[in-house]
Write a structure and sequence with these properties.
The complex is a heterodimer of chains A (about 140) and B (about 230).
Chain A: H1 22-48, H2 54-65, H3 68-95, H4 117-142
Helix pairs in contact in A: 1-3, 3-4
Chain B: E1 4-10, E2 17-23, H1 30-40, E3 60-63, E4 66-69, H2 75-78, E5 82-86, E6 93-95, E7 98-99, H3 102-110, H4 130-134, H5 147-151, H6 164-174, H7 182-189, H8 203-207, H9 214-226
Parallel strand pairs in B: 1-5
Antiparallel strand pairs in B: 1-2, 3-4, 3-5, 6-7
The chains are: A mainly alpha (about 140), B alpha+beta (about 230).
């Protein structure tokens, strides 16, 4: 069968997530934070592997990473970690069919039960908790 | 209240938008705007439609960036002087606003969208209580318009994903107490590009014009497969 031009949105479809509500924004943030944490994980393995070069090698890398820019990056990593964890719990429960509502006879204007208040509260909680964690991380890293 | 709007139509041959000034009234729908432009300004605009009452599912398209039925979307509710209509994403374009549904129907057929009677049912009626009916009737409202597949972010990147429409229909039959084909159906969707590819973004449910809530059906079905739900 010949390949068909499916007019796919591709990754560009992830731009402007707000047109589908906060759930799509959460989906978008989940992907971004997942990729960010993967990148951090790889960098973290490289960083900790410097201990193999002894105390001198470790101190050299610590000096290299103790910059304002990298501290800002760490604060972002803290935010990504908290958001990914809290939203991940919401999504995992949802995947098990927990908290997505029950089938009913829909009446106009159809409000999807799976996009209920519990999920919205969980998403906003994930955002607020990650913001709080970032503020706390900033105070620790920058000593404010 | 506006008495004219600018209708921007994506044309498939040029890839550009053509603009038309269209008169509107309080209850004018986007489909009526397109048909006005087609009748009086440019008869070459390709658009598919039929019932004009959100029953046939033919006139799905992206309206101001969001998938919707043109016959079910009033100009007044968009609250904009400019309305942009484009073909649905994640479907091959036939021409202008008309897209091909081959893949949607292929995936729909794959999930065996029909009741499969068991041996014990031979020769007798399928009795069903109202509570048993309520378990699936919401999902039987699907009109196969494809808006859910167009909004789905997984469909946007995965060429082999079955899509929310087919998966929600799989749930519709699995949840039906008269059906004896669950195992076959679950085997079909138990695939890395089947039910496990859904990431619960929920956009499918937000654009469904019939209140089907495919995201709910998919999660309930996944819960059933994981053993969380009976």
């Amino acid at each position: 069968m010949e390949p068909r031009d499916e007019n796919r949105e591709g990754l560009g479809g992830m731009a402007n997530p707000g047109r589908y509500g906060i759930e799509r924004v959460a989906y978008w943030l989940m992907r971004l934070s997942g990729l960010g944490l993967l990148a951090y994980f790889i960098g973290h393995i490289y960083e900790t592997s410097s201990i193999l070069r002894g105390e001198v090698g470790w101190d050299e890398l610590m000096e290299l990473t103790s910059t304002t820019e990298l501290h800002i990056m760490l604060v972002i990593v803290i935010g990504m970690c908290v958001f990914h964890t809290v939203n991940g719990i919401r999504v995992m429960l949802g995947h098990g069919g927990v908290g997505v509502g029950r089938p009913t006879r829909p009446d106009y204007p159809y409000t999807p039960a799976s996009q209920n208040a519990r999920h919205k509260i969980a998403i906003y909680s994930a955002i607020v908790l990650s913001a709080i964690a970032m503020v706390y991380g900033s105070t620790v890293l920058f000593g404010v | 209240m506006r008495d004219t709007i600018t209708l921007r139509v994506r044309r498939s041959e040029s890839g550009d938008f053509d603009e038309f000034k269209v008169p509107v009234q309080k209850w004018t729908t986007v489909l009526e705007c397109i048909l006005h432009a087609k009748q009086y300004m440019d008869h070459s605009i390709a658009v598919r439609y039929s019932c004009r009452q959100a029953t046939c599912g033919s006139c799905g398209m992206r309206i101001n960036g969001r998938p919707a039925l043109a016959c079910f979307t009033k100009v007044s509710e968009l609250d904009s002087d400019t309305i942009t209509v484009e073909p649905m994403s994640n479907f091959p374009i036939i021409r202008d606003l008309a897209v091909g549904f081959d893949r949607l129907f292929e995936n729909h057929h794959r999930v065996r969208p029909y009741l499969e009677p068991g041996d014990a049912d031979a020769g007798r009626e399928h009795l069903q209580s109202p509570a048993e009916l309520d378990r699936y009737i919401q999902f039987a409202n699907c009109i196969k318009c494809g808006l859910c597949n167009s909004a789905c972010p997984t469909m946007a990147t995965d060429t082999t994903f079955m899509g929310p429409q087919a998966l929600a229909q799989a749930y519709r039959y699995v949840a039906d107490s008269r059906d004896a084909g669950k195992d076959k159906r679950l085997n079909i969707i138990d695939d890395s590009h089947g039910i496990w590819r859904c990431h619960f973004a929920g956009s499918c449910s937000q654009v469904c014009p019939k209140g089907v809530d495919p995201a709910m059906g998919i999660q309930l079905l996944r819960g059933y497969m994981l053993g969380f739900r009976g």
